[in-house]
Amino acid sequence: MENVALLKCMEYEVDLIEKKLREGFELLGGDEFLKKLIPKNSRVLLKPNMLSVESKDSLVVTHYAVFEAVIRIIMGYSNNISFGDSPGFGDSRKAAEKSGLMEVADKYGVKFEDFKESVHVKLDNSILCKSWNIAKAAYEADVVISLPKLKTHAMAYYTGAVKNQFGCIPGSQKATWHTRMPDANNFCKMLLDLNTAVGANFAILDGIIAMEGNGPKSGDPYKMNTLIMGKSLTAVDSVAVRLIGYDNPLDTPVLKEAYDSKWGAVLPRDINIIGEELESMKAKNFKLCRKGGSFYFISPGVTNFLRGMIAPNPTLIKDKCIGCGRCAEICPEKPLVIEMVKKGDILNPKWNMHECIRCFCCQELCPVGAIETKYSTLGKLLKFDKR
Ligand code: SF4
Ligand code: SF4
User: Fold this and answer.
1) Pocket test for ligand 2, best of 181, 315, 327, 333 (most atoms within 8 A of CB)
2) CA–CA separation, 134 vs 120, rounded Å?
3) Under 8 Å between Cβ of 42 and 80
4) Which of 48, 270, 328, 349 is the most buried (most CB within 10 A)?
5) To test ligand 2's pocket by mutation, which of 304, 321, 331 has the most ligand atoms within 8 angstroms of CB?
6) In 3D, which of 16, 140, 7, 153 has the Cα closest to residue 84?
7) How far apart are CA 100 and CA 85, in angstroms?
8) How far apart are the C-alpha atoms of 306 and 386, rounded to whole Å?
């Protein structure tokens, strides 16, 4: 049975968040728990979500007030704390500076790691992927504390504690994993193996203001007023997805693969929620990216042709597009899929959907939210679109 602390926190106010997180640690076992989690002289790495270069108070990244509150607590157990991430697009230092995380880190003497140096890791006990290049700082830390943001995600439906470690793969190497794992089932297995390799020891999920709709970068704010924390990343995610509307956690791809592979606690019967009652914290009418029973779950048994007919597609919102070309640049299948074509005064992306692997990196990283996912007419007719 895995313990998960579910906390109510109404504001991004650092003293308040610190108080709530201390209450959470108290529920999990207090000082003894923290001493076990962070043995003496441990090198602790904090891994926030820095998906891209975003300003302070952005919904896309872990909020700097949560980051500061965590540092204040962890400082009582380690004097060797660092933080880092590798954004999907853009420079990690700039991402840390613009989001306010660097300013907080400097205030407390927390070292920044740019995640550019990697180590080669072999994994014998993997589900699928045995060989890895992982950010050295993440791999070599004694304790990794994951600080994800609660958001929707076009491919994985939801991004939280497990998905957050994808940032431990340095820079453009992330794109190659999309090419190697075009199938969502395998991509999620890869994420679990990556977590085995990184070995994150604890997760604190920032869900005070979550992202609904067109996540993980261009969705809308949803005030969830929650922080979720625990040692089991899958258990933290299982609680989070139930809060946003997946009554069955197996309706989300990562947790389905985790359950099938016996990788961590997923089912409600294996998770002990302490603190707030789950029912009282559930979001109402949270706009999901996708609902269970859709494309992902029918993918293994259907032909590529049928998949192409049924699957959701990246779709342009023309009046938002600024013609920057980032989508074409970021696409792991480039140059086969996206071609920039002149439309009036600017260039617009044009997709060759026969070659598209539906990784949704283009949707994820468009700087102005000009790409959304839409089901084909057949997909809608067959009721795969259950948002
Ligand atoms: S869709 Fe987005 S990423 Fe692509 S060119 Fe337009 S604005 Fe840039
Ligand atoms: S077009 Fe978008 S969804 Fe398709 S392969 Fe490229 S990045 Fe992935």
Assistant:
1) 333
2) 7
3) yes
4) 48
5) 331
6) 140
7) 14
8) 19
What is the identity of the amino acid at 51? L
Q: Whose CA is nearest to atom 6 of ligand 2?
A: 331
Query: What are the pLDDT digits (tens) for 249-274?
Result: 999 999 999 999 999 999 999 999 99
- What is the average pLDDT across 132-155? 96
Spatial distance between the Cα atoms of 375 and 290, rounded to a whole number of angstroms: 10
Q: Are 49 and 148 in contact (CB under 8 A)?
A: yes
Q: What is the CA radius of gyration of the chain?
A: 20
Q: Ligand 2 center to residue 220 CA distance, Å?
A: 22
> Ramachandran region of residue 275, left (φ > 0), alpha (ψ -120 to 50) or beta?
left
Burial of 55 (0-12, 13-18, 19+ CB in 10 A): exposed
Q: Which ligand is nearest to the CA of 314?
A: 2
Q: Indicate the average pLDDT of the chain.
A: 91
Residue 324 beta carbon below 6 angstroms from any ligand 1 atom: yes
* pLDDT-derived band at 195, boundaries 50, 70, 90: very high
